[in-house]
Amino acid sequence: MSTAPSRNGAGALVSQLALSGLRHVFANPGTTEMPLVEALDNEPAVSATLGLQENVCTAAADGYWRISGEPAGVLLHLGPGLTNAAANLHNARRARSGAVVIIGDHPDRHLASDSPLQTPLETLASATSDWWARASDPDAVPALGGAAFNSAAAGRISTLIVPADAQVAACEVPLRQGQLALERPYRSPASALDALRAAKRPCLIVGGRALTQSGLLAAEQIAAAHGATLYCETFFAVMERGFGRPAPRRLPYFPEDALKVLGEHDLVVLAGALEPVAFFAYPGMPSRLLSNRSVLQILAGPEDAIDDILKDAAQASAPSSTFDPMPTIGASWEGSLKASTLCAAVAAALPEDSILVDEGITTSLPFYDLSVGARPFRHLTLTGGAIGWGPGAALGASIASPNQTVINVQADGAGLYLPQALWSQARASAHVITVLCSNRTYRILGAELARAGVSVPGPKASAMCDLAGIEWTSIARGFGVPAVRVETGEALAAEMARAIAADGPSFIEAVLP
Amino acid sequence: MSTAPSRNGAGALVSQLALSGLRHVFANPGTTEMPLVEALDNEPAVSATLGLQENVCTAAADGYWRISGEPAGVLLHLGPGLTNAAANLHNARRARSGAVVIIGDHPDRHLASDSPLQTPLETLASATSDWWARASDPDAVPALGGAAFNSAAAGRISTLIVPADAQVAACEVPLRQGQLALERPYRSPASALDALRAAKRPCLIVGGRALTQSGLLAAEQIAAAHGATLYCETFFAVMERGFGRPAPRRLPYFPEDALKVLGEHDLVVLAGALEPVAFFAYPGMPSRLLSNRSVLQILAGPEDAIDDILKDAAQASAPSSTFDPMPTIGASWEGSLKASTLCAAVAAALPEDSILVDEGITTSLPFYDLSVGARPFRHLTLTGGAIGWGPGAALGASIASPNQTVINVQADGAGLYLPQALWSQARASAHVITVLCSNRTYRILGAELARAGVSVPGPKASAMCDLAGIEWTSIARGFGVPAVRVETGEALAAEMARAIAADGPSFIEAVLP
Question: Which ipTM was obtained for this model?
Answer without folding.
Answer: 0.96
